[in-house]
Amino acid sequence: MNYNDITVVFVSFQSGHIIENPISAINKNIKIFVIENSRDEKLKHKLENKYQNVSVFIPEENKGNGAGINEGLKLANTKYIFYLDVDTQLTENTINELYSHAERLKDFSILAPAINNFEYKKSFFLEQNEDYSKMSFVTGCALFMNAEVIKKNIGYFDEKIFLYLENDDLCKRLIDLNENIYIVPKS
After folding, report:
1. What is the largest CA-CA distance in the chain?
2. Rounded to whole angstroms, how far apart are CA atoms 5 and 21?
3. Rounded to whole angstroms, what are the CA distances from 127 to 53, 69, 181?
4. To 10 degrees, the CA torsion angle through 134, 136, 140, 146?
5. Order of strands across the sheet with 6-12?
6. Model confidence pTM above 0.90
7. What is the 3-state secondary structure (H, E, C) of the chain?
8. What digits encode the pLDDT tens for the residues 16-58?
9. Cβ count within 10 A of residue 145
């Protein structure tokens, strides 16, 4: 795996009590951007001093989760961007599995890991196989994105949607453009 191919993006809002859990589970060679929407300067200094691979950005105002993700996408100059909610818990192989599938599939917009205790409706599966399944929707708590597709083809998340449903909108727009979304169960 080429760690320089990936940037992990978190959007934080008063998340100082939980954000270190997922950060500490990520390989220290992977760049991490935290968009800190609650403007917590103490958290910025704490994270940047404790983790060499973390950069915290504080926007002028909180424009919502989708806008925060967009900020991270715009700052990242990597092939892949892995958006994670601040309360996610990664397994040891999550990033490796997603990266491996990204390198093999090539024609994807989003890859998503399996989420514990979350079951997708059968109608969301467009094609299913053992290794990965083509989807019409994936939950937005963990999105491994093809940066080129998201930045150039789709035009980012809709910033008019402050919170909730921004991921639903993104998936629908990707599907309308015939872009591929996959779930990778082993991740």
Report:
1. 46
2. 22
3. 37, 28, 11
4. 60
5. 54-57, 31-36, 6-12, 80-84, 142-146, 110-113, 181-184, 133-135, 125-128
6. yes
7. CCHHHEEEEEEECCCCCCCHHHHHCCCCCCEEEEEECCCCHHHHHHHHHHCCCEEEECCCCCCCHHHHHHHHHHHCCCCEEEEECCCCCCCCCHHHHHHHHHHHHCCCCEEEECCCCCCCCHHHEEEECCCCEEECCCCCCEEEEEHHHHHHHHCCCCCCCCCCCHHHHHHHHHHHCCCCEEEECCC
8. 999 999 999 999 999 999 999 999 999 999 999 999 999 999 9
9. 27
Amino acid at 176: D
**Which residue, chain included where needed, has tokens 């691979």?**
53
Euclidean distance between CA atoms 74 and 172, whole angstroms: 21
Give the pair of three-digit tokens for residue 113. 């890991």
